[in-house]
C-alpha cells in the first residue's frame, strides 16, 4: 500500500452476497469515501453505507501502525471522519451479464 505520506487513494473491492462486486475508494487527499457500483440496488444503500463506515474504522485503526509512515510526526488520518459515503454514477450492468 505504501507510506501514508504519499498515499492518495485506497481501493477496496467488496463482494456483495457472494454474487456482485462493487468498489469502495477512500480518497485520502479529499477526505472522501466513494463507491462505484454498476448494479446499484436501492434496497441495499443503507447497508452499503453502514459497511463502508465499518471499513473506514478498520482502515483508520490499521493506519495507526508506525510501519505505514516515514516520519513519526505524521498525523494519523481520521478516515472514519471523512465525508459521508457517496455513490458515484457508473454505467448500469445489464441483467444476466
TrEMBL record:
Keywords noted in UniProt: Hydrolase, Protease
A Pfam family reported for this protein in Swiss-Prot or TrEMBL: Peptidase_C48
Superkingdom of the source species: Eukaryota
Gene3D superfamilies, per database record: Adenoviral Proteinase, Chain A (3.40.395.10)
Protease is among the record's keywords: yes
Boundaries of every Ubiquitin-like protease family profile domain copy: 1-82
Family: Belongs to the peptidase C48 family.
Protein's name in the database: Ubiquitin-like protease family profile domain-containing protein
Organism: Stylosanthes scabra
Amino acid at each position: 500500500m505504501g507510506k501514508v505520506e504519499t498515499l492518495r487513494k485506497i481501493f477496496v473491492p467488496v463482494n456483495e452476497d457472494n454474487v456482485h462486486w462493487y468498489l469502495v475508494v477512500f480518497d485520502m487527499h479529499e477526505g472522501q469515501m466513494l463507491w462505484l457500483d454498476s448494479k446499484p440496488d436501492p434496497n441495499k444503500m443503507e447497508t452499503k453505507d453502514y459497511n463502508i463506515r465499518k471499513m473506514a474504522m478498520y482502515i483508520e485503526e490499521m493506519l495507526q501502525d508506525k510501519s505505514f509512515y516515514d516520519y513519526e510526526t505524521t498525523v494519523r488520518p481520521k478516515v472514519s471522519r471523512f465525508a459521508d459515503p457517496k455513490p458515484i454514477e457508473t454505467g448500469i450492468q445489464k441483467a444476466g451479464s
